[in-house]
Amino acid sequence: MIKILSFILIFNIALFSCATSWDENDKSFLFLEKREQAFSNTPKNLKHPSVYNELKYKYEKKSKEENLKEWQKHLKTSIDIKTIEQIVYKRENLELIKNQEILEYLNFVQKQEQHVINHYYSKKQVKIKKEVLIKNALEKINTVKSSWLKLRYFYLGLRLAHYSKLNSLEIYDKYKYLLDIVDKTIVKDWIHAIYAGALIQNRNVELGVYEFSKLFDKSNINWYLSYYNFNYIKTDAQWQKLLSLAKNNDEKTKLYAIRALNKNSNKIEELKNIYKIDKNSKWFDFVLYKALLNSQHYFDTFDIYVRNFQTKEFLEYLKDVKKDDMYMINLSLAYFNLYERNLKEAFIIGKKLDNDYPNNHEIETLNYIIYLNSLEKIDLKTEDIIYEKLEKVTTCKDHHSSAIHNYTFVILEKLYKKQNNKFKEFLSQKVNYLNESSFTLDLLNQFKTFIQTKSKSKIEKHFKNKFLEQNKIKLNNKTFSLAHSLLSTETALLINNLNFKEAREIESEYLDKYIKFNPFNSFIKGNNRSGNKDTYTIRKFLDKILIIEKELKKNPNSVMDNYLYASALFNLSYFGNSNNITTIYRSNYSFVNKKVELLKINKSIKFYEKALKYAKNKEFKAKITYMLAKSELSLFDINFAKKNSYYNPSFQDSYNASRKWGYTKNKIYLEYIDNNYGKYFDKLKKDYKNTKYYEEVIKECANLRIYQKRKDK
């Protein structure tokens, strides 16, 4: 037998400190159906503390539910579960209990809780020695009439002895006969776990782990303990002794299966070990299913995942495996061939499975995923086929996962991108969440046309239904009407693209929104913010800028109109005081549309230069020159901004300026100088050094001081 090195067996976690589909909120693409067997439905690293805590929490919740059901049945009462919970766990409403034995039991539970519950606190209760409580519990076994209560007193005494490191094994041996008297009860699971833990505590490690392995069954509530106590097997000698305790092949293969749950185990070797003992063992299918489940990160779109699954090795091994029931083998072979892009072979296996197991949702899903991955191009006819197939695999009564739907549009997004269909690529990317910040002006115009136009395929109709539902867009007598949020979006996008006239003509409440700062102001401060008064609405701003545009047509050389127009353009940019007019969701650290930001800054420079050319007052000319310097600095930030890298490719592109978190970093200004930026800073010093405005600027503007310091060096 191949030895499994002991480091594989050592866990780092500290202990005690249609079939059903996956949950709607699961972020991964999981296309297998859930199984009933313990640990089957945990597609994560079991060594991670959060996974253990999650399993423990679910156990405690389920354990409590089952315990309360037993109490309700034993009390033979119509008292609701919530009231029973108050009676059993809080000792409230005890007047509802007429049985004296039960009242005494509940009183005893309260007395011993102080020794077994972490952070137990009670001002009223007098602390009783553990030895006395253990003795009282065991005496009660002999005096109470109810066998059900006898077993519970046995559990309480055994638990307290185990926690106190007293004679727990002796107590178990003396009273284990009670396990045969009482019918099925959750208390047996509790006692079994305490007994297994007591064996390990008393250095009978292999027997303790063996007893824990008996809990590894869907019929036991505390099945998770079978794996998390397997860490006590650290050497091959211990492993061999553990194997020798197994009474039959099922128990032996189960031990291999538990060992295979370790993230570092060699799954193929464990499959071989199980196959040698019993090729038809259910534990072979269990281990293979877990391997297949863990392999499904192949479908995830996040780049953080390392796709290092042993696909080729599994294909090589499984091709020669023969079992009476080949379902799991063939299901795995189909997926593994898909991962390796052996689509023809995957299709053949999928078709055979479909013939052998008709109307099986898991297989229908498999074949649909194979079909999606086989697509090289997309057209309207293919869109109809996709939708029909998608509808079939997502209308199963017990199917609640969104994974199949979402993965469909991941594939569609790639196909549309490949064919340079940017609009449908956009629709696929935003199929589940289309918010206002998703749009550019071009995309919004295409979207409006798309909504108004008759759908050419079922996928197009699906897009519309999803977006109409999300954004509450109404279609009245074939007349398209944008919802309030999209009207605001269109207005903002038009302003952002400097289409002021079109923006003013839209009847949107967005026009009545107040602008915090005057968009025609310019100050020494980089963002032109001064004051905190709501002086302008967007409507008033648009009215004024349209008047300025008319004046510039009449008199292109008007100094003040050129200056005010340039200031408005600068302030509408990411770097100005009124950029929230043009942005639905503004980021504090990045801008989205590089092209539009360049448009605004380049145009602001054009109009500032015109104002400077015809201005007469030297102080005013100094002010205009300084605004040109700020615009040039913004131009540098835009041109040298770095594109953000997101794990999720569906996130919108955005850009970070190099100076964003390092305004005083000299190397940034060296780069600024080396790339021939700074002519307006130079002009400001050369031509306007003797102005009062320059004196104020040199005191207030850190950018100018650092630039000049670096330039002088």
Describe the structure.
- 59% of the residues lie in helices and 2% in strands.
- Helix 17 (327-339) runs antiparallel to helix 18 (343-356) and helix 17 packs parallel to helix 19 (361-374).
- The chain has a two-stranded antiparallel sheet with strand order 1-2.
- It has helices spanning 6-9, 49-75, 81-90, 100-116, 130-143, 147-163, 168-175, 178-181, 186-201, 205-213, 225-228, 236-245, 249-260, 267-277, 282-295, 311-318, 327-339, 343-356, 361-374, 380-394, 403-418, 422-429, 441-452, 458-471, 484-496, 500-505, 538-554, 559-572, 594-614, 618-639, 666-674, 679-688, 692-700, 702-712, and strands spanning 474-476, 479-481, 514-515, 536-537, 642-643, 655-656.
- The protein has 713 residues and is an all-alpha fold.
- It starts with 5 loop residues before the first helix and ends with a helix.
- It contains 34 helices and 6 strands.
- Among the domains are: 246-374, Serine Threonine Protein Phosphatase 5, Tetratricopeptide repeat; 489-712, no CATH class.
Strand order of the largest sheet: 1-2
Count all strands and give the number.
6
Low-confidence stretches: 1-17, 473-482
Mean pLDDT reading: 85
Strand content: under 5%
Oligomeric grouping of the chains? single chain
> Cα-atom Rg, whole angstroms?
36 Å
Structural class, by secondary structure, is mainly alpha
| Alpha plus pi helix count | 34
Largest sheet: 2 strands, antiparallel
Instruction: Measure the end-to-end span.
Output: 74 Å
Overall geometry comes to elongated
What's the helical proportion of residues?
55-70%
